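Example (one chain per record):
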Amino acid sequence: MTATKISPRERLLAAADDLFFKEGIRAVGINRVLEEARTPIMSLYRNFGSKDGLAAAYLERRGECYVEEVAGEVVRRASSPREKILATFDVIGERLEKGDFRGCPFINATVEMASPDHEVAKIARRYKEAGRQWFAEFAAEAGVPDPAGLAIQLTVLLDGAAAAAALYQDSSGAMYARSAAGALVDAALAAGSTGSTGDDVRDRR
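Predicted structure:
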């Protein structure tokens, strides 16, 4: 039985995903990507236009997969808005435990770009903003009076846990970030409980 042939585009994306995430976009020369993908340089130009185009496609692909996997797992594990917020910390915390974790790919990519207007930086920012909106929607469903503010606090915790895991090669920060997130959510729910019955607040949780 003949194996399905992998297109040059997919080989380039697979090589970029591995090398750019582990070593950085700027640190990896395009010749290394081509060698890893076993693809001629004309395939790069034809499919992505340039190394920057490949980097943008790599980050977009990684973002799509990340959102799909995390969102699917969170929904599978949790039902209430509060549980979904904390499950997000659980799911991402498990990713931080992997030995090949090199930090948040979106933050890493943004830091590497010379300008915030670079296409790669724009893609990274869009996915980080989507993560903030993810928390804000659950916070609003739970009845938090300032869901946007809570979402900012939660994303700062999550980003800090990811940065610490990459820096110290120790994922334990995720556990403390989750604990802090639970305290923030409960405090926000308590602040929003004025005028609501105890049953209302419990239902939102």
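Caption: Residues 59-204 form a domain with the Tetracycline Repressor; domain 2 fold (CATH 1.10.357.10).
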